[in-house]
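Provenance and format

Records in this collection were gathered into a single text stream. Each protein contributes a sequence line and a token line. The two records reproduced below are adjacent in the stream.
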Amino acid sequence: MRYGYWLPVFGGWLRNVADENMEATWAYVKRLAQRSEEIGFDLTLIAELNLNDIKGVHAPSLDAWSTAAALAAVTERIELMVAVRPTFHLPALLAKQAANIDHISGGRVSLNVVSSWWADEARKYGVAFEQHDDRYARTCEWLDVVDGVWSQDHYSFHGKYYSVDDAVLQPKPVSRPRPVIYAGGESTAAKELIAAKCDAYLMHGDPPERVREKVVEMSALRARHQLPPLKFGVAGYVIVRETERQSQEELRRITDVQQSAAGYENYQQWLAGTQLEQRVSLADYSVSNRGLRSGLVGTPEQVAARIAEFEEAGVNLLLLQFSPQLEEMERFADCVLRRNASFSFAD
């Protein structure tokens, strides 16, 4: 199992708690990334939204790609998974940018390709917003161009959405055969695209038994393309405490929807702009990416046992959220990671 976490570019993950003691600043995320690789985390996911969908559109949020470039220069080991939305980036230009950051980091960049969902954000930033399946058709071409310019010189492509002529990208990425491409989605269009074009499938939070079903389904889709097996990642929000009662008290605190409604309108737009396999609840609203459904709430022993269930279900990567991030990541490392760690921690 590899352990990753969402970089708090929005200043937190809790829609019902206004101040999580984790500012959306370069100083904070730099400190967090550097400490995280010292205590055993393998990866950080840097989300890409120009508006803050957790704390409300008037709250600050950090830019994903300039943040990733800066982190590449001040970290040593951690993988930088950077979210990218094809509607916001021309593919050959993004491929050039990602290759450059890959060199800065020494081969630690990967992509999380997201086919967009927030119509208002696109409109406010002057970007066209298409219907769901059209966005995935665009993403399919986008991935062809990115992979093409990463792997070839004098590359040309002419499709419905993109055209490039005799493109040369040098230097190529350090990562071989290419930076890892992750993607998620629960629609038929998303699953087909990921099975054919990506390297890893990311899932919203769900119990291990449901995740196992998705792993089986996506593995079968992948096998049709005669490609190497997919890797699988799952989102989860962690609450680990000495007693189960303490963990449940914290769970009640963060799911009190009366505290704040700043992000509720944005959440409704996300529901309208995506295609999910399941109905969502107000608890799902409280923490993004259905993180609470993963069930990583309890004592260290309970959380460790749950992680073992995910690993047995075929999961290779946990993408975790914590609040406040730095303090709770330290607690998780002390209480859970150190138990089975094969690495050494810095003091």
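Adjacent record:
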Amino acid sequence: MVSLRWLSLCAFVLSLVPSFASADEPSLADLAQRRVEDGLVKPLALFESRSFSRSRPPPRERRVRVLQTTATLDKNGRSFVPFAIDVRFGADEWRENDIVGCAYTGSGKLFVKRGDEYRPASFLFGKNEKPVAGVCEAAPAGS
């Protein structure tokens, strides 16, 4: 009897202890930021360091800003998080929104905006990527 009572008391006490598992998990914004840094910012810096161009010099520094803390669903029901990359040349002020786009939470795919269209991020590395319709655009409310 004593062991059953002891076991019940332990179970009750453990149910009162808050779960720390979620405290260790990175937030959606942290995951998206890391994905953009690893999948776009670092490779873009490497690409620019290896190529010669008469266009503007590469920025000295880039920073990623995740623009929402929650995911948005696109017209196909896939969730994404919008981001912006700011740049700084020399000791100048930050130039915001040099690159804007979105990171898809399920697949990890990155898209960047050029004009009014979104293209796969590999477009920035010189690949001939066509615009992709419907990505990075929120589904209409109520759908």
